[in-house]
Amino acid sequence: MERWQKILSQSLTKIDDLSKRFNIPIEDLQGLDKEFNIKITPYYLSLIKEKGDAIYRQVIPDKSELIDDGEVEDPLAEDSYSPIPSIVHRYPDRCLFLVAHACASYCRFCTRKRKVGDPSKISLKYIDDGVEYIRNHPEIRDVIISGGDPLLLSDDRIEYILKELRNISHVEILRIGSRVPCFLPQRITTKLVRMLKKYHPLFMNVHFNHPDEVTPVAIKALGRLADAGIPLGNQTVLLKGVNDDPLIMRRLMQKLLLARVRPYYIYQADMVFGTAHFRTKVQKGIEIIENLRGWTSGLAVPHFVIDAPGGGGKIPIIPEYVVRMSDEEVVLRNYQGKTFRYRQSSRNGKLTIEEITDMAAIAMHNEITS
């Protein structure tokens, strides 16, 4: 057994242990383990500073999960786009390949909680069927390997999947989605990354929601992946009481960049049954983007998206920076709320020196008087 597997085997999984550790009345926890698995790695547990903090809320079950607030089990209609158990084929040139049912720790807001943790729904026995489906669909050029968490499989099993996919001529891009660098960074061994780098172009999307998760241990794990030439992107979920604060989100994005991870998405929380207590208003996500763009590096500004209910795909939600637009000019608002005018060209895209000078003068005037 490898070190990371020993750490994983020591995870907190019992309601009684949770009740004692955090002084939670046992009646507040009863039934929650039936709704969704409980598992928290010792490493992630050590990041909890106090009961109810941002780390605590992500993994400690809450009786609010039992409240029916109109959400559904499969809000993204993944099952409708699943021709076989291991594949979700929703977009034209890419598919999701579900290869592992388990996660290092279980997020209480999980979109796929109807399947995750259930070996009868996401199983190794469906892997070969998934490879065959991809082989028979030449339009698929990009495969996102997910689950559960694929990095909880053995190195040999991961390599088998990557090798099989690399042998399909029309598959150009491989991506792995994993929260292991956040929940169990000890899993990112030199042996693992040495194997992964054989299958480029290989990308990895990781999942960090709060700056306190970007620890020295996590940064070391991310560095190993980056050193292997694996481009890293981060997917964050906007969560009430966790990261619904522009300054917290800005610090998270800045720390990720320092760890060589490019912020990729901020997701509006999906309408999953039992997660209403995590969902913010969409306006909060727009506010966060407005407090990132211009106030920090453009590299630190991810896309804010809603994964549309019913399987409509990811739809970007952006602040309105165009105040007014006509054939003559565009009036723009910058990150500070100041307005600027951009004159539309009427000469096949060519502006005179006089027009450029006029535009600069108007911009300077706006800067002075705003």
- Main β sheet profile: 9 strands, mixed
Q: Would you tell me which CATH topology of the largest domain applies?
A: TIM Barrel
Number of domains: 2
**Low-pLDDT runs:** none
Over all CA atoms, what is the radius of gyration?
23 Å
Q: What does the overall shape look like?
A: globular
| Mean of residue pLDDT values | 94
Strand element count: 12
**Second-tier CATH architecture of the largest domain:** Alpha-Beta Barrel
Number of helical regions: 13
Please indicate the percent range of residues in DSSP E strands (runs of 2 or more).
15-25%
Give a description of the structure.
With 370 residues, the chain is α/β, with parallel strands linked by helices. It folds into 2 domains: 78-316, TIM Barrel, CATH 3.20.20.70; 322-369, no CATH class. The protein has 13 helices and 12 strands. The protein has helices spanning 3-9, 15-22, 32-35, 42-45, 54-59, 127-135, 155-166, 180-183, 190-196, 216-227, 246-258, 282-290, 353-369; strands at residues 87-91, 94-100, 142-147, 173-178, 202-206, 232-238, 262-268, 303-308, 313-316, 322-325, 329-333, 339-343. The strands form 2 sheets. Strands 1-2-3-4-5-6-7-8-9 form a 9-stranded mixed beta sheet. A 3-stranded antiparallel beta sheet has the order 10-11-12. The longest helix is centred in the C-terminal third of the chain and has 17 residues, at 353-369. The model has no long low-confidence stretch (mean pLDDT 94).
